[in-house]
Each structure stands twice: as structure tokens, then as C-alpha cells.
Design brief:
homodimer, 4-stranded mixed β-sheet, 7-stranded parallel β-sheet, alpha/beta
């Protein structure tokens, strides 16, 4: 069996995760990593060729799917519609408000070049979106809830690091257990932002910094913390390294509803991940398989997880899927 | 908007559930129920025309999708390949060992007539199968576990009713909490049949029956009970009616795995249903929407949940799906 040839664009936590994930699939190989840094300065977790971003064109016949591992703020909006001119792509674009415009641009570029781009792939958006659409489609009368955590929010950790006097920070988003329990009981509560999640911050302060001011500035930060019950713990650099080195995450999607005869239904999907980027990468690699197969069937343009039949994700033959997984 | 016109074939718990479920979807209407009983003897939960099974042909232009609500033992194997000659169909065929042959027959009949049949739809097979294929595709190194219950198994209840001296019976399948916890901890245990589920039986005995013999015969019944820790409770007819009238069910699909870098992942999907047939019916109706749309795009033959992209299930437009659910 010839393998699906992957390229990795951008080599941070996600790029490393894709290399790890591809190594667990016999039908995949990573041909090259593309970086806008100096390729010689990039150390990969497994052996692979590292190329300059601009060398991509030379790989037009050597790579089946490019997995875009950049960030949603600037990398992906620049890259996806550009890379899809030469390759099929998969990305994890997650800036929710900008998804419609991003979809249209990727769709147009893909249709023009005859390539297929899968966007907003991962776990949220991604597997959580799938839970939402399946649950919503089956249980028409009800309420859907998404809780995140317990896990590290990198955006919130970065926001704390921008406070004067902060050397390092790690922010955990924590779902409120009592709110989860109310949903599980079938109450269908209206929950405010504050009632759903709390925020736990671990902060390494610079020597002599005004801790009370730092704590106040964090707790009052609009959008990030002001609407939440936030706790701030000051810790040492050693404690940060020892206790907060990983990037765990997870969460819950629940739908609570009622049949026309008055019977209650509760559907729940949850994830508990020791490494958020490594799991996201696993999902990206599964969708690279789907993109490869759907493109081989003549599909081009943009797709999200909603457009991909599950059969395309599995390395098993369709007959074996029915035998082993149905 | 013109509605999707449904027919219901067979009118037991599932047929009633389909009527209820369709009443919760604005884009659906039930045109007629078809029965092999005397139509005049069928009382429907909501107003609808009841026709003889043989009158189906007259509806060839009046119904878009037939939902087959018969049993997997004899009804569906007879009906599905027959009904698909005239209509698109959805069914809940769940005899696992016979799925490959059933698929081939439905696929051939559908391709010949130009209709589409979705088979093995519901929650297991169905939503649980989806959890298994998504989890297995994303987490390549790991173990998948399916637990059922707590809920009424109708097959096991029927088996008890066949024991001499038993007037009525209800059997609950109960997942072993400690086994579930071991899976959630990431142990990836090898679990025997006995370690995963227990069986709780509620039995109304005939007056003067030998209770010790009934209990022994139940517990020693091969396939159904011999491999499980089984408890038998003798109750009165009144207690049966009062405490065991509903058909609740549910269960769990979990996958526990590890990334190539050694990080643990736990994915879990669970259902808690006050009414097993009413929830199954909700899923059947969502797949009727998908079958209608895929057939309109030219698709025919047989499909399972694995072949259906999630977008086809939702009543929302694709743009609204991306806005509201992605």
C-alpha cells in the first residue's frame, strides 16, 4: 500500500503533535516540515526533512496533504487560501466569528485550483462541533451546553503574561461541577458565563513586584477574567516547571431534551486530554486521510467536519468498518 | 418550504416514537402508517392515516422516505430490500453478525431501483458506532469499550418470560461501575463479559410456581445469563406496572489511548434515555432527512451512519450549521 504523503507547515506544539500522530498510522508518512524560521534551527521530535516555507512549490508532486499548524490569529488566514492553490490542506482555524469569511475564501481558492481544504478541524471546533450537530439533529427539543476544562487556556495564559511584573503564567479553565450536575439532571438551566466556568491562575512574579496590584489587574481584565470567578496563586519558577509543564485540556458537550411524549434524553460527550495540542494533531491527521480520499473522488473547495462522512476518517476498509465498528 | 413526507412501516413502540419525533421537526410530516394488522385495529398516538401493508404501492409518489419500524429478527430482513424498490428507506437493523449480508442485499436492491436505504440506524448500532469510528480514527493507539445500561433489554426480558411459571419479567442490563472507573483511569483493562455488566431481573411468577427453580433456570440460561452475575427479584404484578412500565436505556462508549509522546487521552460518549424506542426513533427521523437529501443528490444503494456526512442530518442550512454549531 502506498502511503499518504503529508507535509507539515509550521513547527510548534501542533506540528510536533502531527509528527507524533502520523507515526501511529501505518498509512501515513511525513515527507517534510516547512518553516518560516531558519530550517537549520528547527529541531524535530522525529527525523524529517525541514524546508523553507518558500520551497513548498518544489513539493507539488511529492505531498498529498499539507497540514497547516500555524495559529488562527495571523498564520492560517494568510496561508490556507495560498497553500490550497498547490495542495490539499487541513487546518485548525478556530476564530469563531471569522469562520464564514474564512470558509468562503478557502472554498473559492480550492475550487479554482482543484484542491480540497478541511478547516476548523480539532476538538473544538472539531469533535465538539460533531457532538453538537449530531445531538441537535437527533434531539430537536432541548438545550445544548459546552463546558471546557479543566485545562490550560493558552490565550488566557498569554494575557496574564502581558501584565507588568509577571514573568510567567498558566491559566486553567475549570468547569463548575454544580452547573454540570444541573445539566445532567435535566434541568435545562440558563447559565451565565460566571456560572459555567471558573479561572485559576498560577503566576510567577518578578522579584519585588506588587502582588496585590498584579492580582487586581488580572481579575479586572475585561473579556478574559472580569466575568469570571478568578483565583490567583503566586508560585515559584520551580513550581511552575514542576507542576505546570503540560498542556492538558478537555471538556464536555451535553444536550438535555425531551421527546414529544415527555420522556427525557441526556446525551454527553467528553474529552480528558493530557496534551491538548497532541490530541488536536491526532484529529488533524485523521482528517488528512479523509481529505486525501475525498479529493481522489473529485471533491474540491472547502469542507468542515460537518461535510465529511465518518467512513473517510478510518484506515479500515468500509467492509471492515461495518464489521468491527458498526 | 415543502415538507419531507414520511411513511411508517410497522406500528409498535418504534413506530409510535417516529410519529412523536417527526412532530418535533417542522420540516417533516407523516403521510401514512402501514401495517400487516387490520388497520382499523391500530390506534395511533397522533392522528394519521393507517393503511394495509400491501397498499404501499399506491403511495409511490406521495412518500419520500419510509421508516421501517419492524424487528431485526424477521421483519426487516424481509421488508427492507422489498420496500427500497419503491421508496427510500431508513431502518434500525441490529443483528450484528448479519450486517454484511443485509448491506449487500439492500445495496443491490437500492441500486437497481434508484432508491437509497440507510440501515442500522439508532443508537447502537448508530450513534455508538459513530463514537467508535471517530474515536478509533483519531486515537490510533488505544482500547475502545462499550458499556450498555442501566436499561431494559427486551431480548433478555423475553427470554425470562419463556421460563415455565413466569407471568411477566423485566431485565435490566447494568454496567459495572468499577470497570467503567478502571477504563476512565486509563488502565486499558482486559474485561470479561462478567466484569463489564450485571443483569437484574424482576419477575412476576404464577401463583404456586417454584420460585427457586425459576431463579435457577434464569441464572443458568446459556448466552443470556450464565456468563453474568445475575440477580432475580420476585415482585407482584402491581409492582411491575408501577415501577417497571418504562423502557429506559443508555450506555457508554469510551476510548482510552496514548500519543506517541506518551500522553494519555480519554474520549467518552454516553446516553441516558428515559425511553429507548423514542430516542431510537429520533435518530431514525434525523437520518430520514439525510436520506431524502442524499437521494436528491443522486445517491442510491445502501448506507450506514458511517457513509452519511453530519450536515445532511441537521435541519439548519449549511451556513447556519457553521455559524451555530461549528
Amino acid at each position: 500500500m502506498s502511503k499518504i504523503r503529508l507535509g507539515i507547515v509550521g513547527y510548534g506544539n501542533l506540528g510536533r503533535g502531527v509528527q507524533y500522530a502520523a507515526s501511529q498510522s501505518d498509512d501515513m508518512e511525513v515527507v517534510a516540515v516547512f518553516t518560516r524560521r531558519d530550517p537549520a534551527a528547527v529541531k524535530t521530535v522525529l527525523p524529517v526533512k525541514v524546508e523553507r516555507y518558500d520551497a513548498m512549490e518544489e513539493y507539488a508532486d511529492k505531498i498529498d496533504v499539507m497540514i497547516l499548524c500555524g495559529g488562527s490569529a495571523t498564520d492560517l488566514p494568510e496561508q490556507s487560501a495560498e497553500v490550497v492553490r498547490l495542495f490539499n490542506t487541513v487546518d485548525s482555524f478556530d476564530t469563531h466569528a471569522k469562520i464564514p469569511a474564512y470558509f468562503d475564501r478557502l472554498d473559492a481558492a480550492g475550487k479554482e485550483s482543484g484542491h480540497l481544504g478541511a478547516m476548523s478541524i480539532g476538538w473544538d471546533p472539531g469533535l465538539f462541533s460533531l457532538a453538537r450537530i449530531y445531538f441537535d439533529s437527533a434531539v430537536r427539543r432541548g438545550s445544548t451546553y459546552t463546558f471546557w476544562g479543566k485545562g490550560v487556556s493558552q490565550g488566557h495564559s498569554d494575557a496574564i503574561r502581558r501584565v507588568a511584573g509577571v514573568k510567567d503564567a498558566r491559566q486553567y479553565t475549570v468547569p463548575v461541577e454544580s452547573a454540570l450536575e444541573r445539566v445532567r439532571k435535566g434541568e435545562e438551566p440558563q447559565l451565565s458565563t460566571r456560572e459555567k466556568h471558573t479561572r485559576e491562575c498560577y503566576v510567577v512574579a518578578e522579584e519585588g513586584a506588587d502582588l496585590a496590584r498584579i492580582e487586581r489587574e488580572i481579575k479586572e481584565m475585561p473579556n478574559y477574567f472580569a466575568d469570571y470567578d478568578t483565583t490567583v496563586h503566586f508560585i515559584s519558577e520551580e513550581e511552575m516547571k514542576r507542576d505546570h509543564a503540560k498542556l492538558p485540556h478537555g471538556g464536555f458537550v451535553l444536550r438535555s431534551g425531551t421527546s414529544a411524549a415527555g420522556n427525557k434524553f441526556l446525551t454527553e460527550f467528553s474529552l480528558r486530554l493530557d496534551s491538548n495540542p497532541e490530541f488536536t494533531s491526532c484529529v488533524l491527521v485523521a482528517y488528512a486521510r479523509a481529505v486525501y480520499r475525498m479529493h481522489a473522488e473529485g471533491r474540491c473547495g472547502a469542507v468542515t467536519a460537518f461535510d465529511v462522512a465518518p467512513k473517510y476518517l478510518s484506515p479500515l476498509s468500509e467492509a471492515d468498518q461495518r464489521k468491527q465498528l458498526l
